[in-house]
User: Fold this.
Amino acid sequence: MAAQQEPPKVMPKYIKFAFGGLAGMGATCFVQPLDLVKNRMQLSGAGGAAKEYKTSFHAFRGILKNEGIVGMYSGLSAGLLRQATYTTTRLGIYTWLFENFSGADGKPPGFFMKAGLGMAAGVCGAFVGTPAEVALIRMTADGRLPLAERRNYKSVFDALFRITREEGLFTLWRGAIPTMGRAMVVNAAQLASYSQAKQFLLDTGYFQDNILCHFVSSMISGLVTTAASMPVDIAKTRIQNMKMIDGKPEYKGAADVLIKVVRNEGLFALWKGFTPYYARLGPHTVLTFIILEKMNTLYKEMVLGDFSGKSSL
Assistant:
């Protein structure tokens, strides 16, 4: 009797989720300075104060001059925790939903269903990642404050502990609604604009379905996504960084932020930090996939013994 053939080894789902989070964390190490500049630009001129920076390049130069290269990486630990919580949760929930909404014959859900699943997974991931987001906003904003007003968090864990002790547990989820709203906008805009951009490029006849086409499509998608999500993002940033004034919060909610920004700083202030936000979005996505691809390949070779080099993405 012939020996029963063993089923092929596959990568466990928890490894895929872990690799997804690690890939996002690796990419964050490269783009953290852009996140810092974006947050500083969005907080510049808050509360009717004079604008600290004229442009993103002015902000970059000023931060580098006053705080040094180490200052450009303020809040890195919070950025890493955000990726570990947000990316891993989003990936895990999306995979679970994808499997549950696939047909009995394994047929995957349609485009609009996948878009809905992506938005739902993004909202859940954003909720779980909000505490790290609050810590990130505060840690990247600290350097712009006078010495007497700085919070001086030592790390993301120190920030989370002190926020809970000094302001209450629920402060960790301050700005959760605009954070989840941004996640919905980003996921919807990315999915729709990426597929449209890719199809347009292929139809020109100048592109083939390869890495160059994917990169250009990602950058076009990033432009649309940035324009669509920045007003929600600035509301989130202002709410998560606000302090209590005479026992009352500086803003009542996201709508209050948007109204005050437009009234005091002008309509286009809603897109403050556009350049670093856009410059971060494309490279972060590309770097995440490159790192993820490499980790998947190494795992398949070293653990599964698969040297085919075939992509698992």
